[in-house]
Amino acid sequence: MEQRIxxxxxxxxxxxxxxxxxREATVRVLLEHEDDHLSAEDVxxxxxxxxxxxxxxxxxxxxxxxxxxxxxxxxxFGDGVSRYDLRQEGAAHFHHHLVCxxxxxxxxxxxxxLDDVEKEVETRWNFEIKDHRLxxxxxxHRCK
Amino acid sequence: MEQRIxxxxxxxxxxxxxxxxxREATVRVLLEHEDDHLSAEDVxxxxxxxxxxxxxxxxxxxxxxxxxxxxxxxxxFGDGVSRYDLRQEGAAHFHHHLVCxxxxxxxxxxxxxLDDVEKEVETRWNFEIKDHRLxxxxxxHRCK
DNA sequence: CTGTCAAATGATAATGATTATCATGATAAT
DNA sequence: ATTATCATGATAATCATTATCATTTGACAG
Lengths: 144, 144
Ligand SMILES: [Mn+2]
Ligand SMILES: [Mn+2]
Ligand SMILES: [Zn+2]
Ligand SMILES: [Zn+2]
Fold this sequence. Notes:
alpha+beta; transcription (chains A, B); Arc Repressor Mutant, subunit A; Dna Ligase, domain 1; binds manganese (II) ion; homodimer; three-stranded mixed beta sheet
């Protein structure tokens, strides 16, 4: 945890941003909810527990900044809000999601699985892949 | 074109919906822009050219209805709007997209490519896949 | 034909997430 | 200490989408 925050701090400094107390509190909330898919409002409410004087705008700004630095990925599951998902450190690509149509749960697949598909796309469509988004919609193991 | 509209008409009737003039005008616009990825506002402006008295709410309602019937797919590329994409008739799964980070273009991949990956996900994660969304972000063939 | 009724429409208000603005506060270098 | 820059918080503005409601349409029964 602390080492992770330290690395994010360095990453911020390398772009001449500071790790302010508000930003640190926000990052801590994200780390403590690594498996969840929190909206900005969700993050705001959780950060307020430790840092009640923080403003909603600051949370939005911090999430935007972390997205820029590729610490988190901004993702949209089709309900009306953006959700922020901590990226695996050092992962080349964003991980995949399993969205259950029954219970609404969102599970993660950390393995890439797309190597072959991406090779094919790169050659046949002459497209240089930088990243991807893959979501499966269906019935989760709990609902079956 | 006419046959396609006829099949959509039957699909509507089978759920006891009618193909009103407004709905038909909207469907025609979608068919005429099959390769584009139009927002509700885009569709509204295009429909107005043929049917100026249509209201924006009706366009939203029609797009919602067509999404329900799986005639179109609602998709979100991360700019603030939903876009509506005509589905290939009879396709089991939604097609894939190539989004260029340089020029913003969105190209389509109609081939499935995911058969093997889906088999693996179904068995290893015990998840019954109904549909998917796959988007690649990178540099398109024109920008290279 | 008419009258009836549910479905559909269009104008517009309301909502809700996100962004912009701006005065104030913190920080670090000079 | 002074100044300059960055960051923050309150709040207003924006903008896509949804809800509301009075009116219209079209299928159907008599
Ligand atoms: Mn995730
Ligand atoms: Mn498409
Ligand atoms: Zn489930
Ligand atoms: Zn391009």
